[in-house]
Known about the structure:
The chain is of the alpha+beta class. The chain is 36% helix and 14% strand.
Amino acid sequence: xxxxxxxxxxxxxxxxxxxxxxxxxxxxxxxxxxxxxxxxxxxxxxxxxxxxxxxxxxxxxxxxxxxxxxxxxxxxxxxxxxxxxxxxxxxxxxxxxxxxxxxxxxxxxxxxxxxxxxxxxxxxxxxxxxxxxxxxxxxxxxxxxxxxxxxxxxxxxxxxxxxxxxxxxxxxxxxxxxxxxxxxxxxxxxxxxxxxxxxxxxxxxxxxxxxxxxxxxxxxxxxxxxxxxxxxxxxxxxxxxxxxxxxxxxxxxxxxxxxxxxxxxxxxxxxxxxxxxxxxxxxxxxxxxxxxxxxxxxxxxxxxxxx
Length: 307
């Protein structure tokens, strides 16, 4: 079952300007996500899959820690991007260092022992691909073409790309990232958000941040506003009833009647939520919202749509 609420648009006022961007913490982002996946497995109908995703997140953490410091865009390029309000690490055009493919092999080796048989076969196939074929899969991920032949391999490719972009975003820091003219895409890499996070404490308490599906950067967007079309009318919230999935009380789907899209929103005041993990642990909510006629506006790169 689900419930729906509709909230009037109320601008948030503050005596101090909150940070527009929160850069990912390279030392903790994937390790913390793995812990959240582990927490969500208990009593969950998808427990085995969530446990595997915990292993995948831990593999991402290890790959990130061993990734060498890679070159960032030149200061002149960063200045030009700021002037024209363009992301400094654009997903579809930033040159990928070949080191990301080493991260992929490292991730494959780490998660294969924990993988179910079908996934082991997929991982073995991926490990045998040459660089050209792997880069072609990367292009599909970065253009959100998450379907077709070899779609089952794309989450593992995406996991390595997340390591690369997260490392770069963490090194770049917030000083080089400015607001874009399109507030619904990541100001660091131009990718789409996986979910929103309502922060639970400090100067960002009760503020909403979009969480990038690729580089894990977060950026502020006022609440009760569609992340896809900026509409403030017809925004509603749907959630699973108490008897629903694990963590259902901390996750809602923010739906927009103007563009018929939705994106999940997670609330830190409810506990140690993670936008990626809690999104995947509440797929029942996606089914309900999809049946109501709404289309998801941002991907979760660890999920094969329709699988």
